[in-house]
Design goal:
Blueprint: E1 2-6, E2 11-15, H1 19-31, E3 37-42, H2 50-60, E4 63-66, H3 75-85, E5 97-99, H4 110-116, H5 120-131
Parallel strand pairs: 2-3, 2-4, 4-5
Antiparallel strand pairs: 1-3
Cofactor: thiamine diphosphate
Keywords: Oxidoreductase, Pyruvate, Thiamine pyrophosphate
Pfam family, one: Transketolase_C
């Protein structure tokens, strides 16, 4: 159901669909700075393989979710809720961070669209925020 694409020890990145590619790019950028990311591709969201995410969070102690949708009611929000309500919560060294699309209607212009959905730079920023670096 779920695929762990890159193994790391500092932070868990969880995404589904297109943002998985952005997470892999961000992991490459961050690896040059000494940050090892574990990237989890949620290939299905129902059923949700929360056990894989929990195991990764227990290992890395940090969680960043990435999705292109709005912040409210999204997959990232559900993953964060399940981690906060489950046994992996006790392993978190910092609050989970969500990277989402902007809370605006999707713009038509390409430049505005790029600024309203998560980009690699946004993921890198979120990871550094979660790790306090």
């Amino acid at each position: 159901l779920t695929l762990v694409s890159v193994l790391g020890t500092h932070v868990t990145l969880v995404a589904h669909s297109r943002p998985v590619g952005h997470c892999l790019e961000a992991a490459t950028v961050l690896s040059k700075e000494g940050v090892e990311c574990e990237v989890i591709n949620m290939r299905t969201i129902r059923p949700m393989d929360i056990e894989t995410v929990e195991a990764s969070v227990v290992k890395t102690n940090h969680l960043v979710t990435v999705e292109g949708g709005w912040p409210q009611f999204g997959v990232g929000a559900e993953i964060c809720a399940r981690i906060m309500e489950g046994p992996a919560f006790n392993y978190l060294d910092a609050p989970a961070v969500r990277v989402t699309g902007a809370d605006v209607p999707m713009p038509y212009a390409k430049i505005l669209e790029d600024n309203s959905i998560p980009q690699v730079k946004d993921i890198v920023f979120a990871v550094k925020k979660a790790l306090n670096i």
